[in-house]
Queue: 3 jobs
Job 1
Amino acid sequence: MVLITGIAGYIGSHTAYALSQAGFEFVGMDNFANSRKENIDTLRELTGKDFKFYEVDMLDDAGMEKIFAENQIDSVIHFAGLKAVGESVEKPVLYYHNNITGTLILLEKMKKYGCKKIVFSSSATVYGNPAVVPVNEDMPTSTTNPYGSTKLMIENILKDVCVADKDFCAVLLRYFNPIGAHKCKKIGENPNGIPNNLMPRLCQAALGITESLTVFGTDYPTHDGTGVRDYIHVCDLADGHTAALKKAMDSTGALTYNLGTGNGYSVFDLIHTFSRVNGVEIPYKICPRRPGDVPAVYACPDKAFNELGWKAQYDLEDMCRDSWEFIKEATKNN
Ligand code: WQD
């Protein structure tokens, strides 16, 4: 049985669907800090499985104990955590306590109940401002904000656990920039409150929820002056987790993989592609750079292809089309 922490979230919910399609049985937990309760019923409807769900905060030791005591958990996919870069700068202790202590409590339960397989939701943010792109998994890591530091610390904790227990396997997945939504239009990126990331903010401008999209900087050393990122369809990302879980079940040690397309696209590339494929205008205004942003980061995805047999299938047009179809559906009753 797989435990999916943060199952109600954007990537967690898409991964749960992918796991279901691949024949895995799972239980889920979430505290709905950055997700919606209705995603659980939506997932049960989409998968046709009345899987067990626990509304638990990973800092709740008794709650986490109950999950492991009541289910034969043989692997974990660990999404639960706070993820807003800007908020992490303002509230570092909240981020370190929630993300690190929560993971340590999870690892204590895994040890107590003999669960030795984990797939961890890490992030390309651990590469900081890479000297060269595309980045591969052997490149230096450095973090520029507490959110990124929690991801790197958890990677190192999991590497140490693999040294202490030779039967343990941790697959560390470094996501680039997930966007898009499943074509069912029932799960997607629709965060509580004001979003931080480009695509949800672009969609809000397209819907007229906000007056315009803010373009943070046009003076970067990139092909058009705006920031370049490796946008990856969330369904590709979800399939990467299924491949990683299969790898973890017959491996030991710490294994690190980039989950990206290998293509870098700028903010203007995204705006123009989104506008063209969806036939909508995106009002935007140009503002100064956002503190902490880096000019360009995108993946070399070869290791995941060679060792997991995984490669992104969707292109930028698919991502823009699926994001738009989801957000129109999600906001039509608002
Ligand atoms: C992308 C590009 C911005 C908003 C962060 C985290 C990463 C992951 C994803 C959690 C940049 C520009 C953005 C806007 C803009 N976090 N931008 N106007 O910063 O690459 O990655 O979020 O899962 O770990 O580091 O993503 O979408 O915020 O920004 O111009 O309103 O869009 O400057 O170039 P980022 P992002």
Job 2
Amino acid sequence: MTERKAILTIDGEDTPIVLNVYPATLGQDVIDVSPVLGRGYFTFDQGFASTASTESKITYIDGDKGILMHRGYPIEELAEKSDYLETCFLILNGELPNAKEKVDFQNIIRTHTMLNRSVESFFSGFRYDAHPMAILCGAVGAMSSFYHDSLDINDPHHRMITAHRLIAKMPTLAAMCHKHFIGQPYMYPDNSLGYSENFLHMMFGNPCEEKEINPVVAKAVDKLFLLHADHEQNASTSTVRLAGSSGANPFSCVAAGIAALWGPAHGGANQAVLEMLKQIGDVKHIDNFVKRAKDKDDPFRLMGFGHRVYKNFDPRAVVMKKTCDAVLGELGLFDDPLLKIAKRLETIALEDEYFVEKKLYPNVDFYSGIIMKAIGIPTEMFTAIFATGRTVGWISHWNEMISNPYRIGRPRQLYTGPLKREYVPVDQRG
Ligand code: SDX
């Protein structure tokens, strides 16, 4: 392929800056702007909307066409034909597993679900009503203290065992957060169960009685995990990569990703959607809230709407909506008042010129909360579920970075602070 160049001419500069253009296999080609430093400039892109921070082969998103693919497989196909653990294998290793690989991977994950007993005492240090994301941040970061035998980030085997441990133990940790919150005994994993069934067992089971797991609910949880598995260089994944670029251990990098995900503009939106729907309370109040969302002077936003990349439907939201209907139908909750408000809100927003003009569509978080509420998952656990599903994406991006040549991430800035000035002793200040 012929090498393409971009020519940057700057007022007052005689010689233009010649920049290389690198081709993508899909989506936008990139302009390597690093030479501008040699000419005394930085590039400026607040929020990194136009910045490719890295090269990756894991996930591709086309925001205008509403396309999401993991290692080339469209999310709609994976959601319909695959399952969460198989998708984890794909995202982590780059290919779908064959029959033996699939069974071996299930067994590897199944045999790493337990946590060291000391972790339980770690939980007792948290207030009874600590937010699950506060606990997850701490607990996942602390996990590095249990695995000194496999923290050599340059050893591919250590990287893989760590990935397996994180994928396997996140559901156990998340369920423990819930049990801690409601003051019930922790449930040990039951390794005779599948990944998502086991999560429901640890979330809703108790030592006093057998708890039947509804297969429709288990399938919905598996789909929730799958739809949240990875999403390119989003805020939390970029945080994991930046933390990892310093050579920090993978558990602390994932803990940093959990912290970034917690924000309501990111993974915390699913909890914020439910709280918003409850605040709206009745379809007759929707117009007022839509009016507020459009008011520049009102900080209120329609949670679950809009996306930095998708300027069309979020393909995950389309699948999530179908799953929502299936779960509510199975549980006989079709007249769930919050679902009614959500569907009416979606219709109104999609017809309103403000949302149409700004291309604000429902995103992955809009319907996921309604599914989780229908399953009986408390609102404060929603983002912990998102984090559990996203762990494979975080650790796969971390592994991709560490497996290839990388440098510590160190962005610069546009400084607009004070010029140099002399220190004034305090008794001479005004
Ligand atoms: C996730 O990046 C990822 O991939 C994230 C994610 C993943 O899987 O990792 O997909 C998961 O985080 C989904 C997004 C969940 N967040 C929410 O639902 C919170 C509500 N949405 C917004 O806060 C917002 O849309 C963002 C944060 C999602 C995107 O913000 P951007 O890209 O910075 O867009 P913006 O804030 O510049 O908005 C553009 C315009 C603005 O109006 P103008 O200043 O141009 O006049 O649209 C308006 C905004 O005011 N706008 C909204 C709105 N979202 C954007 N107005 C009302 N309600 C909203 N929800």
Job 3
Amino acid sequence: MPNRLIAIYPGSFDPLTNGHLDLISRATRVADHLIVAILKNSQKEPLFSTADREDMLREATAHLADVEVDSFEGLLVDYAAKRSANAILRGIRAISDYEIELQMALLNRRLRPQTETIFLMASEEYSFLSSRMVKEVFFLGGDVSPFVPAAVLKRMQSSFPKKR
Ligand code: ADP
């Protein structure tokens, strides 16, 4: 029997964007099981709590089969071992992503060769999108509805009512 592809898509997802969601739905075509995992990073002060980010991710991915939402702290490769994952999924938007992603992929391979990093290229229509840009536009009063799933827009508007 061929190996099942169990992939972890790690990230901050603070918040989830349509670019992340596009990557997730395309990844479901190649992975047998996809775990979208929020990294609890004590060094970054997030806009949304881990629980809020998990809720938004669950709502936005509810229509996709074989997608699970989870969170983790510590080393990604340790989490991969715990979840018996054989792949890490990451997205590449531009050359600027490549350098840091290559470094992380090589480091993770050194730490745990059983886990292969797989990259999907961003779709052209989302290749400019980042969580940071969404937050900037939102807090400057701009319309972020084209950039985030409905569940995220709703949560942003209710959490920060002074902004549209
Ligand atoms: P991190 O804080 O780990 O960079 P992000 O949530 O910003 O987490 O991104 C997680 C992954 O998703 C990264 O591999 C990133 O390159 C990828 N990604 C982010 N935005 C997009 C997008 N618009 N299209 C495709 N991939 C994306």
